[in-house]
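Summarise this fold before class:
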Amino acid sequence: MELILGIDLACRAAHQASLARSDGTFVWTGRKFFTRPADLEALWAAVGLAEGDVLRVVMEPTRNAWAPVASWFRRRGAKVSMVPTTQSADLRAYYSKHTKNDHLDSKLLARLPLLHPEGLREHTGDGPAEPLRRAVKIRSSLVKRRTAVFQRLDAQLELLGPAWYDALGSNYGKAALAVLARYADPHSLIRLGQARLTRFLIRHSRGAWRDDHARALLTAAKQSLELWGTDAEAGIDFAELAADIAVEAEQARVLTEQIEDLDERTANLYAEADPTGIVASAPGVGPVASAIIVGRIGDPHRFHSLAAIRAYSGLVPKVAQSGQSAHQHGLTKAGDPLLREALFAAADAARRTDPQLAAKYKRLMETERHHDSAICHIATTLLTRIATCWRTRQHYVLRDTDGRIITPDEGRRIVRDRHSVDPKTRDKAAHARMSQRRKARTGRESQKSQSAPTSRPAKTNPTTHQVA
C-alpha cells in the first residue's frame, strides 16, 4: 500500500505533516516537527510502514527548507514529490473556500495524489544543495553588483572629465582599478610623476600599460584641474571625490577577484557534471553559459517532456484559448530567470554560427518581428536541441539548412553570405516597436483641467446626473 505524507514546510516555525492512505482517508493529521534528526526519526516512527508499504512525501519548495527534509526521506527509501506553489494554491482555493492554515495545507498535500495524480513526479535532485546550481547563481549576483559599481564609477569620473575615460577605458581592468583606488585625486597623480606612474602601471597591468598610458593619465589630471580650477574653494574638493572613488574601486576589485574564483569553481563543477562537454558543444554556449544551463536545469530527465523544459525557461508565450480562438501574448517568464538570461545571450551568439538558426532568425525578422522577440524564439529552439543532445548523450552537430554537416567556420561564412538580415529590415522592425511603445505611453493627451482646450475632445466619465 502507498502512504502519502503531506508536509507543509516553514522556514523558522514548526512544520506540519498529515498522513493519508491512497484512497484519501487520513491516518493522522497535523503532526508538528522541526528539521532535526530526532524529530524526523519520531515522524518516521509515526508513519509506521509495514512490509511492502511505500511512502511518498509531498512538499512545496519553500525557500531552501525543503532540501534537507527531502534528502533525509530519500535516504530512508521514500519517494519525494515537489509540488509547484501555484498548483497547490489553486487546489487550496477550491478545497478550503478561501481559508488558509498550516493544518489544512498538510492535509491538502497528503491528498494531492488523489486530487491531481498527473501533477506528481518523483524529485531526485537536491536543488539548492547542488554546488553548481548555487555557484552560478552567486556568480550572477556578483556580476550584477560589479556592474552597479562600474556605473557609479562612470558617474564619478564624469566629474573629473572625459579624458579619464580615454586613459582608463570602459571595462575597468585591474590596472584601472588600482589607479582609481590610489590616485583618483589629480593633485596626487601629478605629484607622482610620469616615471613612478609608469612603473606603477607596469606592475599592476603585467606590462600591458606603459609610458603612453601614463602620459594619458597625467593629461587627464591636468585637464581636471583646468576644468575645476586649482583653488579648492572655487571648485570641487578632489580629495573627497578621490576617497569616494577609492571605495567603489576597492569594491570592484574584490568583486572581480571573487568572480574569477567562482569561474574556476564552476569550470571544475561543470566538468564533473558534463565530462564529455555535451552542453558546451552547442553553438553560442561558452564556459559560463554551459555551467549555468547544467546548474539550473539539473537532471534533464526530471522533466516529462521537452515542452516542460521549454516552459521551465519561461521563454514560451502565454496562451489564452476560448472555443476556436487562441491568443498568444508576452512570455510567461516562469521558471528560472538566470537560465533565461543565459539562453537569450547564447541564442544571440548561436544565430551567427548555426545556419538553421540564422535562417529562422532572418525569417522572423522579415515578418517585422522585433529583435528580442526573434531571439526568444531562437532560444527555445536552441534549448530544445541542447536538451535532446543532453538526454541522448550526443554532441551538438552543426548542419546547413540542407542537413549537410559543417564546421563552425563554414557556418559563420554561410550565415554571413546567405542569412544576414538587411539593415533596413532591422531598422523598420525597431521603429515599429518604438512606435508601439510611444503610442502606449501617449495614448491619451494629458489634461489636468477637463475644461481646458485640447487638440482632441476630452474624455470624461459621465456623472450621476448625466446618466440619469
